[in-house]
Design brief:
The protein is mostly helical and about 210 residues long. The chain is about 80% helix and about 0% strand. The protein contains ten helices and no strands. The longest helix is centred in the middle third of the chain and has 28 residues.
């Protein structure tokens, strides 16, 4: 499974940015992930990127500008691409059962968040203090998922398996509950997430809410 950092590096590789610009952005993401935005200095970024401090700020006027450039690429390209890759593998027709479908996608995404914990934390922490980023992040995630998951959800609804709710509402339920389990892990670096236990509880709760009672 390709990490967010690897996907970001690949996206930059295909951009029109110079090698030094890419080095600054990749080094900044690495440092922001490892020691936090507040603890990262221009000298740290310059050393990690193998450039001078002057070079860092000749491309990006402030540290805030570097973070904005990183987040912009994540929101516009990296996250949609990651969701597209995931959707192609998981959102297939003729699912065995709704609980098994839920279990598969919830486990996959919780493992992904756990393995990319620090990068996801940067995105979420920024969205907590910037409403524009919060709205954009939510819209990108929701609308990137809706189209590929809709045929699967529609099939379950047509077969009378799940409630005839809008697909956006169903997706929001799945995302909100999954995120509620992942958040403590991201907010507290010492917090461990028992993936098996979390998946069981999430699937049980979602099945109770979404499965049509006959």
């Amino acid at each position: 499974m390709e990490s967010l950092e690897q996907k970001y590096a690949q996206t930059l590789e295909n951009s029109n940015l110079s090698l030094k610009q890419r080095q600054v952005l990749l080094s900044s993401l690495k440092l922001f992930s490892e020691i936090g935005f507040e603890n990262t200095t221009a000298s740290f970024i310059a050393k990690e990127a193998g450039v001078s401090e002057g070079t860092v700020f000749s491309y990006f006027k402030t540290k805030e500008g570097i973070l904005e450039a990183i987040l912009s690429t994540f929101l516009e390209q990296v996250i949609p691409d990651v969701i597209a890759d995931f959707s192609e593998k998981k959102f297939t027709a003729n699912q065995e059962s709704f609980p098994l479908f839920l279990r598969s996608i919830v486990r996959d995404r919780l493992v992904f968040i756990q393995e990319n914990q620090m990068q996801v934390k940067i995105l979420l922490s920024r969205s907590f203090i910037d409403k524009n980023i919060s709205d954009q992040l939510g819209n990108v995630i929701i609308h990137s998922i809706i189209k590929p998951i809709s045929p699967v959800l529609n099939q379950f609804k047509e077969n009378g398996v799940i409630r005839d709710w809008s697909n956006e509402r169903i997706v929001r339920y799945i995302l909100a509950l999954s995120l509620s389990y992942a958040l403590p892990m991201m907010l507290n670096d010492n917090e461990d997430l028992d993936i098996d236990e979390a998946v069981n509880e999430i699937v049980e709760c979602l099945s109770f809410a979404l499965v049509e009672v006959k």
